[in-house]
Amino acid sequence: MTSSYTVQRGDTLTKIAKLHDSTPQAIAELNQLSDINLIHIGQRLQVPGASAPVPEPRPAHHNQEQALQERTLFMQFVDVLNKPIKDLKVKLHLDGEIAEHVTDSKGEVPPVDVKSKSSTVKVEVETVSGKSKHIATVSPRGANTYVRLHSPKLAVQSQLRTHEGTPSAAAPTPPAAPTPVLPGATASASPVTAADSSTSKPKTTVPPGAVTDTRSPAGHPVQEVTMECPNKLNLKLMQNFAYHDYIVAAATRAAMIPQAIAAIMNAEAATIFTIEEIPVINKKTKEPVLDKKGKPVVKKKKINTFVWDPNSASPNSSARGMTQFLDATWIEMALTDGTFLNARAKKEGWLTRTTVTIKHKKSEETKEVPAFKLENGTFVTPGKISIARQLSSKPHLTGRATSSDGNLQKLLDLRLQAEYAIHTAVDYAMQNLAMLTKAKFKIDTLNDGEKAKVAYLAHHLGPGDVKEFINDTMTAEHAEYLLKAQVGKVNAAERAEENKNNYLTAHRTWLNGFINDRITIIKYMCDATKAPTVRELLDITVAIREKA
């Protein structure tokens, strides 16, 4: 069950979560918040529970502290295809005790109650050989922590059959076994042009888990299973493998490694959530809680699949598609020469040139100008304001993601095609890096993992603030404003207090951690030992300053 809560002045997601016995992450997932640190006064949030819990009197202060420290850990085990692993034997080590479980059809084990916030849970699984293998150590971060553990392997069901019939005197020549296709090996080495495609999913690369039945040279039946890793590009996308070819093509256009592009995409992309109803269990009786009608009481758990969502639509703005471009920004990118989206707009004939007559006091001038062709055959041309600004306002835009013109609507709807969302996000990132290079920052000295961090920093702060952040010339007052806007007034004050009441240091420290966590290229590498050394954001900013 969920209830509604309206954000008040001074609220943070952490504060709201504590009030409703939840976690910031759970509330963020429930409300599809792309930034867990950004909420605003008056915003209505759905929160777990029928209502805010009423504190009960407790006999001792010690018991209150213990209750505040108690937290629940939920774990799910999935394979390389992001599918649940059933019947996996799991050992959980917690506070000197060992609990053994077998995963259910959803790949889950029973919730684990953790008594202290300082406790960690050591997770072991049984391998095929029957040995125990340590795979993770988990530290619960709130009242409820959801952890998904990925296996790099895949189990394939195979049926063994005996040979039937009388063998021939001379063995027939068996059919040639097909060469296994490694993901990435079939990807085009040249840039993909907008004119070449209009669909939303790649076609060329064989997906992981694909099984081919063939025979060995001796004629024995063989099953070949395509796996994502290893591959020539050392690229690992797991649940987002469907977008492999687009990532590789965008990386080629940007002259960057695909892992850096994947990291930027994962930081920018909206993801798909699923809703699961879970019975509420009485902790004392271990039995399901029933309502007045005798039906099991359930709570809804919103689960992040971490699959990028090409059809995402913000309920609060015109942001649409996997990379959540606003109407105006998307139109601006379409009108920018050299972008992937610009090539498609020109191919469709939406962007063209036309002849206009300009009247002066005593003469007239005829010249050719760029134009956007409307569905009725008329043109929008530059005037006192640019074409992009004209198209981004009435009468051409009549509402969020809605145009009065068919051609402009088709352009806006391209945001819902993953190929265009990915390429345009990368083009936007490259524009930010070019802007910083023009401002004399030494971007070319960075490796691709570091460029990805700087590109995301520029997107996060904007062109003015990013230069001040890199040069460390931002005022304390402005840093305070930015930090409060990101994490809330109370959280910002706490962070400042941790930094000797210095909001400038607090903002730099927070943003350093925020971007270091979001842009991690080794997550997208089959072999992480091949990753370049990527410095922390603050170290990068020092290195690229003009006078560094």
TrEMBL record:
Location of region: Disordered: 158-221
Superkingdom of the source species: Bacteria
Residue spans of biased composition, Polar residues class: 188-203
PROSITE patterns: LYSM (PS51782)
Stored Pfam families: LysM (PF01476)
Sequence ranges assigned to domain LysM in this UniProt record: 3-47
InterPro entries (UniProt xref): LysM, LysM_dom_sf
SUPFAM superfamilies: LysM domain
Regions of compositional bias (Pro residues) in chain numbering: 172-181
The protein's name in its UniProt record: LysM domain protein
Species annotation: Collimonas fungivorans
